[in-house]
């Protein structure tokens, strides 16, 4: 198991939620392909380690809600039912735990966004899925006046992560010092 | 310590960094005490990282280590900034005090660099003359400044030429210059560098504004646009506001400090050290400071002069925590900016992630005293500022228009269609200083060192909302004329009360009974103690405050070096 924090069952549930938050479509990958779930797993093992118990408990509660309303684990529900449950949690229309669950929805939503649109070094945005989705070239040393014109197609720019950019910068620096 | 120290500087941001540099270069022995790190330029090479600098707020204070509390009024119990303190990671990392470490707020600022207008020094009397003595709300403690534009012009010039500001003059020696701001006060010369690379949307904005009878001009920026005094020209990377500069184009006092340490041998920096008290001699003169060093040990340090140069809020906390508030004016007269954010989508691709946020133009037709006669009772105008670049994905998602779902296919489609077409306008409405809105020490909440947290008592007023709404109407008209597809607006009474332009907490004045410092920043009741920065402001213009903070810092250092 390559997870840093989640067990397999938790990971499955997180993946199912991510898949609905930024859904995959034919020719248009989403949070699943971006591996936003890996971002969340890594963040919980590191920066958000104080949220480990919080996540574990809320995921458990989340699945209990799925069972209570639909009679099955969230991962087994049809996409429409999965969306419906997320909508009702977001709107605070379910059960007595609704407030807690609504906040948890905000948290996992935020982390899915971060895992889809943040730099790939944090474990998500694999193959720049998030940045391709919105036309963002990522970490660029700069842009030229020619590129900064109305209507310029940013798709021509090679997308770079911070790591890619620094590698190039090092090469450029070496070249400068050699010359 | 056996070496005599001429000056202790507390905090190395805009004011402290510049004064430290000037005093060290002037031959004084300076020890600077800084809460944050002493950075190296290479720390910022990989700064193109929204997770690190935005989501996780790598260089700004966190509410756990630097708690601040807020309450809307005296009847309500204050709590740690509710918009910024979310332990679940849901906070708003923009509405907290500026970045820490060498350079302070000049690490993560946007670089807008404005001179005050002549009338900005006389806001109170200008309003009284223009409208009436009773036009101002009764609660305001607004005063005129004890200094004026003519006195400060050489200092504005010095900021622009010694530190380096890019822009286009509109009025040189009372002669109008094409392409600049026709409404600006007379200046002795142009900027040393041309305006920053225009964002793609700028032509459209300028053409529209001109068609509507306005006079757009390029936003002046403290960002090098040519190689200038060791600073490299900006590359338009689009990770500017909220991020440190990777090549030092954006003016940061970090670079000044570093050079002064290496070249003069007169400046010692003590990072990760927190001053908690100013000490006085028996005769009332300043003696020195007490601080927690990097290992949390208490150190007492003495010097002839102590300069408090933290953020306006933290300066007030230090004065209050040291019992230096004889006339009760410390922490009073708090002034904030209300921005009236106006976000929209254009039909054309603007590539709004490219370049500086300041790559656009601004109109000053209604700024400050130029406010048109109006029935709403708005007494002071604001520019219409533009925000053309520097949009990153996650921050954009945090500010989606209300009709767009936060998730699902519609969310995905909206971002795919519109992330490259964003454009923002804003203005900067100064709140009116008063005794109702102020900062003091929180009676309950302490920082990790056991020192009282600062407490903010502030609520937006009907007047604030009225001013914002008046300018929202102008923005809507411009948006329509530009052909914007949709737009959405921030509340005129936002849910945050720290704006990064918070000033006035130790205002300057000539009368020791009604002000905290003199124009040089020296605290009236404690000889040798200076409190500098935005806290000195008597009123706030509708421009960004930083150039004035630099100009005042030059004034203070000239005074300390006995040049004035």
Can you offer a commentary on this structure?
The complex is a heterodimer of chains A (179) and B (564). Chain A is mostly helical. Chain A has 2 domains: 128 residues, no CATH class; 43 residues, no CATH class. Chain A is built from 8 helices and no strands. Chain B has 564 residues and is an alpha/beta fold. Chain B has a single domain, classed as FAD/NAD(P)-binding domain (3-Layer(bba) Sandwich), CATH 3.50.50. Helix content of chain B is 23%, strand content 15%. In chain B, the strands form 7 sheets. In chain B, strands 8-2-1-12-22 form a 5-stranded parallel β-sheet. In chain B, helix 1 links the parallel strand 1 and strand 2. The two termini of chain B are 31 Å apart. In chain B, 58% of the residues are buried. The mean pLDDT of chain B is 96. The chains are: A mainly alpha (179), B alpha/beta (564). At the A-B interface, helix 5, helix 6, helix 7 and helix 8 of A face helix 2, helix 9 and helix 10 of B.
């Amino acid at each position: 198991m390559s997870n840093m924090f989640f067990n397999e069952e938790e990971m499955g549930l997180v993946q199912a939620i991510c898949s609905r938050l930024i859904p995959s479509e034919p020719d248009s990958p989403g949070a699943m392909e971006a591996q936003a779930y890996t971002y969340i797993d890594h963040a919980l093992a590191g920066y958000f380690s104080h949220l480990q118990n919080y996540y574990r408990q809320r995921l458990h509660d989340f699945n209990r809600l799925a069972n209570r309303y639909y009679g099955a684990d969230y991962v087994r529900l049809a996409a429409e039912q999965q969306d419906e449950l997320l909508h009702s949690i977001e709107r605070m229309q379910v059960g007595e735990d609704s407030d807690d669950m609504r906040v948890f929805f905000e948290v996992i939503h935020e982390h899915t966004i971060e895992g889809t649109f943040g730099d790939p070094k944090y474990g998500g945005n694999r193959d720049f899925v998030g940045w391709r989705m919105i036309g963002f070239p990522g970490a660029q040393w700069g842009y030229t006046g020619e590129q900064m014109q109305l209507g310029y197609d940013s798709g021509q720019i090679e997308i770079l992560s911070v790591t890619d950019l620094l590698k190039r910068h090092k090469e450029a620096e070496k070249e400068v010092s050699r010359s | 310590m056996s070496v005599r120290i001429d000056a202790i500087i507390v905090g190395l941001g805009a004011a402290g960094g510049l004064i430290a540099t000037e005093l060290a270069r002037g031959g004084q022995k300076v020890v600077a005490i800084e809460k944050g790190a002493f950075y190296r330029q290479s720390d910022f090479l990989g700064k193109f990282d929204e997770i690190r600098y935005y989501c996780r707020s790598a260089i700004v204070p966190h509410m756990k280590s630097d708690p601040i509390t807020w309450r809307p009024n005296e009847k309500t119990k204050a709590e740690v900034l509710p918009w910024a303190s979310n332990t679940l990671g849901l906070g708003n990392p923009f509405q907290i005090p500026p970045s820490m470490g060498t350079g302070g707020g000049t690490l993560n600022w946007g670089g807008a660099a404005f001179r005050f207008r002549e009338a900005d020094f006389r806001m109170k009397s200008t309003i009284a003359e223009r409208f009436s003595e009773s036009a101002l709300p009764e609660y305001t403690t607004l005063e005129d400044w004890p200094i004026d534009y003519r006195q400060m012009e050489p200092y504005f010039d010095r900021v622009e030429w010694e530190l380096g500001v890019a822009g286009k003059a509109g009025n040189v020696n009372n002669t109008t210059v094409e392409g600049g701001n026709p409404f600006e006060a007379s200046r002795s010369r142009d900027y040393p560098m041309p305006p920053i690379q225009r964002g793609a949307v700028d032509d459209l904005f300028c053409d529209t504004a001109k068609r509507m009878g306005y006079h757009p001009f390029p936003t002046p920026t403290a960002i090098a646009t040519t190689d200038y005094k060791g600073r490299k020209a900006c590359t338009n990377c689009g990770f500017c506001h909220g991020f440190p500069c990777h090549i030092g184009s954006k003016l940061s006092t970090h670079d000044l400090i570093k050079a002064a340490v290496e070249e003069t041998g007169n400046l010692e920096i003590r990072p990760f050290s927190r001053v908690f008290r100013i000490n006085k001699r028996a005769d009332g003169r300043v003696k020195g400071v007490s601080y927690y060093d990097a290992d949390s040990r208490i150190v007492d340090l003495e010097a002839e002069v102590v300069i408090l140069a933290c953020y306006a809020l933290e300066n007030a906390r230090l004065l209050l925590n040291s019992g230096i508030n004889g006339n009760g004016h410390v922490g009073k007269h708090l002034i904030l900016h209300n921005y009236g954010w106006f976000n929209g989508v254009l039909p054309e691709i603007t590539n709004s992630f490219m370049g500086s946020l300041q790559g656009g133009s601004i109109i000053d037709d209604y700024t400050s005293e130029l406010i048109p006669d109006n029935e709403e009772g708005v007494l002071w105008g604001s520019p219409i500022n533009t925000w053309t670049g520097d949009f990153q994905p996650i921050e954009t998602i945090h500010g989606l228009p209300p009709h767009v779902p936060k998730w699902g296919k519609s969310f995905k489609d909206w971002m795919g269609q519109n992330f490259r077409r964003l454009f923002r306008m804003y203005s900067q409405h100064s709140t009116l200083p008063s005794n109702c809105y102020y900062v003091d020490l929180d009676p309950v909440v302490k920082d990790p060192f056991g020192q009282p947290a600062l407490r903010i008592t502030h609520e937006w007023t009907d007047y604030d909302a009225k001013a914002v709404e008046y300018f929202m109407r102008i923005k809507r008209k411009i948006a329509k004329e530009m052909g914007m597809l949709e737009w959405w607006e921030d509340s005129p009474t936002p849910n945050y009360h720290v704006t990064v332009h918070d000033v006035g907490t130790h205002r300057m004045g000539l009368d020791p009974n009604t002000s905290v410092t003199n124009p040089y920043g020296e605290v009236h009741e404690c000889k040798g103690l200076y409190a500098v920065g935005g806290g000195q402001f008597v009123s706030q213009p509708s421009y960004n405050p930083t150039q004035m903070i630099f100009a005042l810092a030059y004034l203070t250092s000239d005074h300390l070096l006995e040049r004035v």
